Amino acid sequence: MATKLELKSYRADTHNNWCPGCGDFGILAAMQMALFQLKIEPHRVAVFSGIGCSGKTPHYVNTYGFHTLHGRVLPTATGAKIANKDLTVIAVGGDGDGYGIGSGYFVNSGRRNLDFTYLVFNNGVYGLTKGQASPTLAKGIQTKSLPDPTILEGINPIALAVGAGYTFIARGYALDVRYLANLIAQAISHRGSSFVDILQTCPTYNDLYTKDWFEEGNEGQPRLYKLENTGYDPVVHDPNDADELIAKKVQAVGKSYEWGEQIPIGVYYKVDRPTFEDEMASRRPSLANTSLLNVDLNDRDISPLLDSLR
User: Fold this and answer.
1) What is the pLDDT of residues 241-253, one digit of tens each?
2) How far apart are CA 3 and CA 261, in angstroms?
3) Is 11 part of a structural domain of the chain?
4) Residue 28 exposed, middle or buried by CB count within 10 Å (0-12, 13-18, 19+)
């Protein structure tokens, strides 16, 4: 008899030691809400993380989890999805982990269009190692943890994702949990490489991008606005129409550079294209309905390989 799924089904019985007020709590809650919304059984989910405060996420979700090395979450998650195509794979990491040391993996994961979801906890600093500037902190910005303003240009992760080839690209806000949960559910449901950049607060080290900054803005008006409320359409309706593809990408990149008094959240870009798994299956039809984990390795004689290693 199947167990009735509840929201608490996705909550691990593990002490959480994130700093009070950290945006990570909102992202964790949104992930759990999204999985419950989609009614995905916990044993069919695997959450992978890199290094940093966000790296603890798999410990707090009642699913399978894997805590990887700094910047290496995407290749590890890729291996898991290829090994078991029926697994719902969610990769999580911070902006330093994903856009710094892991930037090469970030780009190449988008090129593959593997069917998995990548969530980035973006707070502008390296929170675990005392608040150094992360790749998303703009040039000239100085948080309380920095002795001087940053001298490097900040990157634009949304624009980078568009160029890399992610087929679902969105941005959320950690403290708007219900809206973020809906975005994550859409990302998981999308068949292809889904990427969600999540703006979050770091009350310990980033005293600039605070809850008040995001939610009150200039003259008490919220900086964050939802793209769908403006009539924005992120969907490429005909993936074979090169002109439409280009137009939607240009539109998404243009919106991604809105920062300051107005910051858009929501889905920036979405297109349905063949996944990495589809491409592999078309070249090797025998793989179409096979996961590597379902292959019986006992039927294989690997003694010649072992002998060659002696």
Assistant:
1) 999 999 999 999 9
2) 47
3) no
4) buried
